[in-house]
Amino acid sequence: MSANDRNRPTKAKSSDSTYSVMDFVRDFPDDATCLDWLWRRIHSTNGIHARCPKEDRERGFHRVASRPSYSCDSCGHHIHPTAGTIFHKSSTSLHLWFHAIFLMSSTRCGISAKQLEREIGVTYKTAWRMFHRIREMLMTDDGDPLGGEVEVDETYVGGKRRGSSRGRPGADSHKTPVFGMVERKGRVVAKVVDDTRAATVLPHIKTRVLDAATVYSDEYVVYGGLSQMGYQHRRVHHAAKVWVSGTAHTNTIEGFWALVKNGIRGTHHAVSAKHLQGYLDEYAFRYNHRDDPRPLFLTLLGRIAQADMA
């Protein structure tokens, strides 16, 4: 007799997957299961009773067979679990939405809208819309401050360099400036900025980095004001080809930049400046939850009820 049941496959013990496709198929086999999950998550803990907005009291509810809603057993008032979520007014199956969230959470380098179109069988326009709503509504920055040892750095994404081949692109460059801050062994924040001048960069540091933190940077002149702002500031001089000096280095933030640029180059190929912040949020969200014991897919589902759709 075979050691494995081919009709009921299980995840291998050696796999580092926290939530596999087998888990997804088991937990969310169809559209009705996805709607029931949403109903229980937002309105009804036991799947039966919920507060009726019309009567303003707890009532029993039952699923309406002809539409994605639940009806009050007493007055017939309908509650639509998708209202106010990223699925609001979407004609696309909830099962496909959940599958899209699973695909976006199960890869380290992301997935393109074109690949999403191929995977779930929708039009490119629909896949692109789903792709951006999932990213911009669920993969958002929590806004928590950074502390301890924090590295800061700026980079440029996209377009062709104009001007000198070394140093920072000139004012006529097609590249988009991006500023980042990362806790060592912690979280990262990445923001699209208008430029990399001190008046632009330093307020981001003041807003997100705790006063007691030690800030590490390269020799770029705009970081000269960090000491006057009250931070312990240490530098590493890249121009002199010094990459590490004791504990002073920016290897962590540069490693994150490599993840972003390699992901964009290999998966998306090109990203417009208009949507670049969304891509940065996606890569930052995945980076910030890299060590979570909870599967990233379940973390994203848990954010559905909290997402602000205003």
Strand content: 15-25%
| Class inferred from helices and paired strands | alpha+beta
Q: How many structural domains are formed by the residues?
A: 2
- Total DSSP helices: 9
Distance between the termini: 57 Å
Gyration radius, rounded: 24 Å
Regarding quaternary structure, how should these chains be classified? single chain
Helix and strand succession?
HHEEEEHHHEEEHEEHHH
Total number of beta strands: 9
The biggest beta sheet is recorded as: 5 strands, mixed
Which runs of at least 5 residues are low in confidence (pLDDT < 50)?
none
Can you list the strand order of the major beta sheet? 7-6-5-8-9
Give average pLDDT, whole number. Answer: 90
Q: Helix proportion of residues, in percent? A: 25-40%
| Approximate shape | elongated
Overview of this structure, please?
The chain has 310 residues and is an alpha+beta fold. The chain has 2 domains: 21-141 and 296-302, no CATH class; 149-273, 2-Layer Sandwich (Nucleotidyltransferase, domain 5), CATH 3.30.420. The protein has helices at 21-27, 31-42, 94-105, 113-120, 124-138, 198-208, 251-268, 276-288, 296-302; strands at residues 49-52, 57-64, 69-72, 78-79, 149-157, 176-183, 188-192, 214-217, 232-235. A 5-stranded mixed beta sheet has the order 7-6-5-8-9. A 4-stranded antiparallel beta sheet has the order 1-2-3-4, with no helix packed on it. A hairpin with a 4-residue loop joins β2 and β3 (69-72). The longest helix has 18 residues, at 251-268. The chain is elongated and about 75 Å long. The mean pLDDT is 90.
